Amino acid sequence: MAATVALIDYGSGNLRSAEKALARVAAEEATGHQIVVTADPAQVESAERIVLPGVGAFADCMRGVSAIPGMVAVLEDKVLKRGTPFLGICVGMQLLAEFGREHGDHKGLGWLPGDVVKISPSDAALKIPHMGWNTLSVRAQHPATEGMNGTDVYFVHSYCIRPANRAHVLATTDYGGEIAAVVGRDNIIGTQFHPEKSQGIGLAFLQRFLKWRP
């Protein structure tokens, strides 16, 4: 029986693009994974690894995850207690924080100490949202980001995560100031950039995530 990757459907996120990208690398690299788009906590419970995507406002995304009966509980059990490999993408990564500061203060999952704040570039000519290709600076070694220092990946966001612990910042990018581009600890990793939109570099990242054994 194939190991499954649960791609969580909570009404927000670049689901189909993420599904296609994950399925492509699983097939090309023969990892044996089946990609399952699901809002069913039982399927998340049986998954070998978990991906939480996200597009939109922090509060709306957190509300969407919380509205699925049993979803937050099964995520906490699988990820925090049982060490299941977890990837958060864009707002799915921002939800790892304790609070989002978009249109008020809103509680997140709280898996990484810190908050999510609006980008404020030092250069007034830089537009918000930050949209397009930017260069990664890898700050800490991690199997999923191997070989990514100095590569360009694709961003679309107006807010960024601000971890309280600098050790949780695995890579940054510069957009009129430093922005956390990859964060993580233990079996958890999150990207502010969209790997499913980052062409070969993003596919290679997803490949390494599927093979990662925390």
Structure description:
α1 crosses α6. This protein has helices at residues 15-28, 41-46, 58-66, 71-81, 91-94, 199-211, and strands spanning 3-8, 33-38, 49-52, 86-89, 97-100, 106-107, 112-118, 130-135, 137-138, 152-157, 159-163, 169-174, 178-185, 188-191. With 214 residues, the protein is of the alpha/beta class. The chain has one domain (3-211): 3-Layer(aba) Sandwich (Rossmann fold), CATH 3.40.50. The model has no long low-confidence stretch (mean pLDDT 96). It has an eight-stranded mixed β-sheet with strand order 2-1-3-4-14-13-12-9.
With strands numbered from the N-terminus, the spatial order across the biggest sheet is 2-1-3-4-14-13-12-9
Biggest sheet character: 8 strands, mixed
Proportion in β-strands? 25-35%
The pLDDT mean sits at 96
Could you give the topology of this structure?
Blueprint: E1 3-8, H1 15-28, E2 33-38, H2 41-46, E3 49-52, H3 58-66, H4 71-81, E4 86-89, H5 91-94, E5 97-100, E6 106-107, E7 112-118, E8 130-135, E9 137-138, E10 152-157, E11 159-163, E12 169-174, E13 178-185, E14 188-191, H6 199-211
Parallel strand pairs: 1-2, 1-3, 3-4, 4-14, 5-7
Antiparallel strand pairs: 5-6, 7-11, 8-10, 9-12, 12-13, 13-14
Helix pairs in contact: 1-6
Highlighted features:
214 residues; alpha/beta; Rossmann fold; eight-stranded mixed sheet; four-stranded mixed sheet; 6 helices; globular
Give a short synopsis of this structure.
With 214 residues, this protein is an alpha/beta fold. It is built from 6 helices and 14 strands. It has helices at residues 15-28, 41-46, 58-66, 71-81, 91-94, 199-211, and strands at residues 3-8, 33-38, 49-52, 86-89, 97-100, 106-107, 112-118, 130-135, 137-138, 152-157, 159-163, 169-174, 178-185, 188-191.
